[in-house]
Amino acid sequence: MCDYAQAEFRLDVTPKDSKSTIREHLITIWEQTGFMPAELDLTPPSPTISYLLQFFYELCQSRQIGMTVNPLSFTEIDAWMRLSERPLEWWEIEVIKRLDVIWLKVQNE
Question: What is the reported pTM?
Fold first, then answer.
């Protein structure tokens, strides 16, 4: 799941001096050539855990941004769980926090 998420996060990066994400550039190449770039050919994680990636994306909408992009806090996760009425197990929170570390790393590359 972490490798898949990292590849997905990298596709959503907008390179300097560009208005499009890497994913958008690669889709354009695919449309023009008929050949799908390998970077787009990702095997999604098992549905038994892929819901956590969707939860992560929902949580990202509440991310605090100041001088830098901040990691998701346990307070934000707790508020999201209460408001969405989706109680998570501790291991699920750990997976979301791990996804956040990967996301932040990709943003800072």
Answer: 0.85
Tell me the pLDDT tens digit for each residue of 59-89. Answer: 998 887 767 788 999 999 999 999 999 999 9
For the stretch 92-96, contacts whose Cβ atoms lie closer than 8 Å and that sit 24 or more positions apart, written own/partner, are: 92/52, 92/55, 95/1, 95/49, 95/52, 96/52, 96/55, 96/56, 96/59, 96/72
CB 46 within 8 A of CB 36: no
CA distance linking residue 100 with residue 12, whole number of Å = 15
The amino acid at 59: L
| Whole-angstrom distance, CA of residue 89 vs CA of residue 4 | 22
Cβ 52 vs Cβ 1: under 8 Å:
yes
